[in-house]
C-alpha cells in the first residue's frame, strides 16, 4: 500500500523505483547534476541519484519544521541548484546552493493572512530574490526588505495575479491575471516587452517561457487542462488541443510537453532552418539544397542553381547554412540531405575549412545516439555542449552504468582518457603535475581543470592546485579553487584574468564564506577586488559601503556618503543631521572647501524651513540663487538682502539677479530705486538690456544716459 517513487528516462523507460517510506512529499525537482530532490512537508530534503539510490538529506530549518511546507520550488542559478520554501506562516525561506547550504529567511509581507496566489524565485545581479503576488499587489522580497512593485505599462484594469513565469535565463518575467491579461517584460520590472489578452480567464495549470538564446522572438506557453496557447509580441496567438493532461518543462531553447504517452518539444524554428525551408525561399542554403537534389536526378537545373549562388558570391554562406541547419534537425534523413548539400557545395570551393563539416558529423552521430529510446536523452543541438572531458562522455558514462552505449559515446569523439598519474601516490605533487603536462602539453580539447577535479576527488588537493596552473582558462580555474576552499587563490586568479564578472563571483563567495572582519581584511590586500566591491555596494548595499570607508578612515568618502544619504531623508531634521555628519567628516579630511559648502547648505536649509513656515510658500530644496530670486519676485526685499549678506553673494551676481527678478515682477519703480541705491557694480547697460527684453523702452531710456559712450551698442 506504500506509494512508489519511480524514475523514467525521457523516452518513458523505467530506470528505477523505490517504495516510499519517508514523510509526506510536497515537491520533486532535479539538480543540475541530475540528482533527484524530494522535499517533504516537514522541510526535510532527501537526495537520490538516477537509480533511486539514497545519497544524503538536509533540513530547511526549524521554522519550516514548525510551520510545515505549503509550497516548494527547485531553482537553478550560477551558484548551483537552490530550494525555496513557502511555510504555513506565509514566510519564504530559501537556500541558493544546496551543495553549500546557507538558509535565508526572506522578509515578511505586511498583513499577509493567506497564501499568495503565485510566487517565483528570481536571480538578478548575483542576488536571489522572491516575487510574490497577493491579489492585485506584487511584492519584491530581497535580503533586507519587502517592497510593493508595479510592472511598467501594466493595464490598470488587469485584475488580480493568478500565475507568473520566469524565463530559463532569469531575464524575463510573465504575469497572468484573472481578466486573461498577460504582461511580458524584463525580470528587473523596468521594461515591458509586450502584452496579450486571452479569451480564457480561468487560472492556468502552468505558464512557462519559450524562447531561443539571442532570439528577438519572445513568447509564453500557457496550459489549461487540455488546451495550450502560445502568446508573444503578436496580436494573435497559437492554440493547440492536447489529447491528455500534460506537463510543461521549460528549457534553454524551448518547452518540453510531457504526458503519460508522449514527449514533444515546442520551440521557435531556428533561423538557418527558416531560411532554407521557407516556401519559395531564395536563401543561398535553399538554392544549394535544390541544386544537390537536381544533381542526384542528373538534371541541368543543378548547374543553374549553382551558377546563381556563385554569381552572388554566396557559396561559402550556402555551405555554412546547410551545415548549421543540419545540427538543428532531429530527423536523420533531413540531416543527411543537408550535409550532402554542404558536401556538394564544398566541391566548388577552393579553401573552405573542413573542420566545421567534420565536427557537425561527429556531433550529430553523438546526438542521434543519445536520442535513441534506449538512452532517452533527447538533447537539442543548442543544449549539446562542445566537447571536453566533462561534456557528453565521462559523467554520462557513469550515469548510464558503464554500458556499451556510454563507453561508445565516450570514445566517439577525439578525447584522451584521464591520465593514470592522478592515481599515483608514490610521487610528489610537483612530479606528477610535470609528468602530466609533459605528456599532454597544449593538446586541443584537453581540460586541465577536469584532470585537477579528478585529482581533488582522489584527495590530492595540492596536486589539483598545481595542475590548475596549466589551465589557460581562468573561468575553469576559479570555480574549482572555490570548491577546494582556496578562495584567496581563486580571487588572485580572477583578478589576473581581467574578467570583472569572475572577480564579482569570487568576492561574493568570499562574503558568504568569511566573517565580516576577515572579508574586509582580505579585500584590503586586493585593491582591484576592493574597488569592484565598492562599486557593487554603491548600488546594492549602501550601509556596507559606509563600513568600508570607516575601516579605511576615509573621511572624504564618508563625507560624500553622508551628503548622498541626506537626499534620501524626507524630514528636514534627518537631512540636516546627515549633512552635519558630512561636515564633521570633511573637517577630519581637512577639506575646507567641502566643509564650507556643506555648512552653507545646512544654513540654507534651516533658513528655507523658516521662510516656508513664515511665508507659506515652497522654499525647501531650492538653490540659493532661486531662493533669493523668489523672495524678490514676491516682494520680500529685506529678506533677500539678508541672504545676500549672510551668504556673501558677490555684488555683481546679486545685482544681476535682483534686476532680472524685478523686471520679471514688473516692479520698475523698485528697480529705479535700486539703481540709485549705490553705484552699480555691473554698470547700467544691463538695466537697458533687461528693460528692452521686457518690452519697456520707456524704462530703458531712463538708464541710457548713465551708460558710458564706449559701452553703447
TrEMBL record:
Keywords: Coiled coil. Residues 446-710 form the Vps16 C-terminal domain. Gene3D superfamilies: Vps16, C-terminal region. Its main location: membrane. Belongs to the VPS16 family. Core component of at least two putative endosomal tethering complexes, the homotypic fusion and vacuole protein sorting (HOPS) complex and the class C core vacuole/endosome tethering (CORVET) complex. Their common core is composed of the class C Vps proteins VPS11, VPS16, VPS18 and VPS33A, which in HOPS further associates with VPS39 and VPS41 and in CORVET with VPS8 and TGFBRAP1. Interacts with RAB5C. Interacts with STX17, MON1B. Associates with adapter protein complex 3 (AP-3) and clathrin:AP-3 complexes. This is Vacuolar protein sorting-associated protein 16 homolog.
Amino acid at each position: 500500500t506504500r506509494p512508489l517513487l519511480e524514475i523514467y528516462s525521457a523516452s518513458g523507460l523505467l530506470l528505477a523505483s523505490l517504495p516510499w517510506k519517508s514523510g509526506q512529499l510536497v515537491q520533486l525537482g532535479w539538480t543540475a547534476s541530475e540528482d533527484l530532490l524530494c522535499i517533504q512537508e516537514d522541510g526535510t530534503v532527501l537526495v537520490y541519484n538516477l537509480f533511486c539510490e539514497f545519497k544524503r538529506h538536509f533540513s530547511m530549518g526549524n521554522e519550516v519544521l514548525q510551520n510545515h511546507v505549503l509550497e516548494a520550488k527547485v531553482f537553478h542559478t550560477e551558484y548551483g541548484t537552490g530550494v525555496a520554501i513557502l511555510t504555513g506562516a506565509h514566510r519564504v525561506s530559501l537556500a541558493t546552493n544546496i551543495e553549500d547550504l546557507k538558509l535565508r529567511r526572506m522578509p515578511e509581507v505586511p498583513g499577509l493572512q493567506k497564501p499568495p496566489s503565485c510566487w517565483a524565485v528570481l536571480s538578478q545581479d548575483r542576488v536571489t530574490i522572491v516575487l510574490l503576488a497577493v491579489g492585485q499587489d506584487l511584492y519584491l522580497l530581497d535580503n533586507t526588505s519587502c517592497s510593493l512593485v508595479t510592472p511598467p505599462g501594466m493595464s490598470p484594469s488587469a485584475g488580480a495575479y493568478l500565475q507568473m513565469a520566469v524565463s530559463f535565463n532569469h531575464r524575463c518575467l510573465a504575469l497572468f491575471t484573472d481578466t486573461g491579461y498577460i504582461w511580458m517584460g524584463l525580470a528587473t520590472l523596468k521594461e515591458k516587452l509586450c502584452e496579450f489578452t486571452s479569451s480564457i480567464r480561468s487560472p492556468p495549470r502552468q505558464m512557462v517561457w519559450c524562447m531561443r538564446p539571442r532570439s528577438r522572438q519572445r513568447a509564453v506557453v500557457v496550459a489549461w487542462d487540455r488546451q495550450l496557447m502560445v502568446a508573444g509580441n503578436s496580436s494573435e496567438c497559437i492554440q493547440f488541443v492536447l489529447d491528455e493532461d500534460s506537463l510543461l518543462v521549460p528549457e534553454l531553447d524551448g518547452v518540453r510537453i510531457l504526458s503519460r504517452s508522449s514527449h514533444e518539444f515546442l520551440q521557435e524554428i531556428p533561423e538557418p532552418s527558416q531560411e532554407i525551408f521557407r516556401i519559395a525561399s531564395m536563401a543561398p542554403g535553399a538554392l544549394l539544397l535544390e541544386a544537390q537534389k537536381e544533381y542526384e536526378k542528373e538534371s541541368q537545373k543543378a548547374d543553374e542553381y549553382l551558377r546563381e549562388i556563385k554569381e552572388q558570391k554566396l557559396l561559402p554562406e550556402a555551405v555554412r547554412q546547410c551545415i548549421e541547419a543540419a545540427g538543428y534537425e532531429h530527423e536523420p534523413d533531413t540531416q543527411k540531405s543537408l550535409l550532402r548539400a554542404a558536401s556538394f557545395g564544398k566541391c566548388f570551393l577552393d579553401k573552405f575549412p573542413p573542420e566545421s563539416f567534420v565536427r557537425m558529423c561527429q556531433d550529430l552521430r553523438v546526438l542521434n545516439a543519445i536520442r535513441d529510446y534506449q538512452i532517452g536523452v533527447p538533447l537539442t543541438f543548442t543544449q549539446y555542449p562542445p566537447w571536453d572531458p566533462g561534456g557528453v562522455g565521462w559523467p554520462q558514462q557513469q550515469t548510464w552504468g558503464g554500458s556499451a552505449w556510454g563507453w561508445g559515446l565516450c570514445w566517439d569523439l577525439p578525447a584522451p582518457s584521464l591520465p593514470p598519474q592522478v592515481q599515483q601516490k608514490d610521487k610528489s605533487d610537483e612530479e606528477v603535475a610535470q609528468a602530466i603536462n609533459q605528456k599532454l602539453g597544449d593538446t586541443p580539447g584537453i581540460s586541465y581543470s577536469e584532470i585537477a577535479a579528478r585529482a581533488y576527488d582522489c584527495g590530492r588537493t595540492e596536486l589539483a592546485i598545481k595542475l590548475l596552473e596549466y589551465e589557460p582558462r581562468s573561468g575553469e580555474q576559479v570555480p574549482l579553487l572555490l570548491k577546494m576552499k582556496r578562495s584567496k587563490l581563486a580571487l588572485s586568479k580572477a583578478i589576473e584574468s581581467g574578467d570583472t564578472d569572475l572577480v564579482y563571483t569570487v568576492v561574493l563567495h568570499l562574503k558568504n564564506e568569511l566573517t565580516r572582519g576577515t572579508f574586509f581584511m582580505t579585500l584590503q590586500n586586493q585593491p582591484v577586488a576592493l574597488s569592484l566591491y565598492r562599486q557593487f555596494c554603491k548600488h546594492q548595499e549602501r550601509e556596507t559601503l559606509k563600513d568600508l570607508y570607516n575601516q579605511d578612515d576615509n573621511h572624504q568618502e564618508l563625507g560624500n556618503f553622508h551628503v548622498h544619504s541626506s537626499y534620501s531623508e524626507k524630514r528636514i531634521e534627518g537631512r540636516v543631521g546627515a549633512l552635519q555628519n558630512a561636515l564633521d567628516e570633511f573637517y577630519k579630511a581637512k577639506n575646507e572647501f567641502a566643509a564650507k559648502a556643506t555648512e552653507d547648505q545646512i544654513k540654507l536649509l534651516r533658513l528655507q524651513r523658516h521662510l516656508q513656515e513664515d511665508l507659506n510658500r515652497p522654499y525647501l530644496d531650492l538653490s540659493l540663487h532661486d531662493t533669493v530670486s523668489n523672495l524678490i519676485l514676491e516682494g520680500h526685499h529685506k529678506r533677500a538682502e539678508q541672504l545676500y549678506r549672510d551668504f556673501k553673494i558677490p555684488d555683481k551676481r546679486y545685482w544681476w539677479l535682483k534686476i532680472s527678478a524685478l523686471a520679471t515682477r514688473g516692479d520698475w519703480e523698485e528697480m529705479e530705486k535700486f539703481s540709485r541705491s549705490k553705484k552699480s557694480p555691473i554698470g547700467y547697460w544691463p538695466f537697458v538690456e533687461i528693460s528692452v527684453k521686457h518690452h519697456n523702452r520707456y524704462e530703458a531710456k531712463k538708464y541710457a544716459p548713465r551708460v558710458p559712450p564706449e559701452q553703447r551698442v
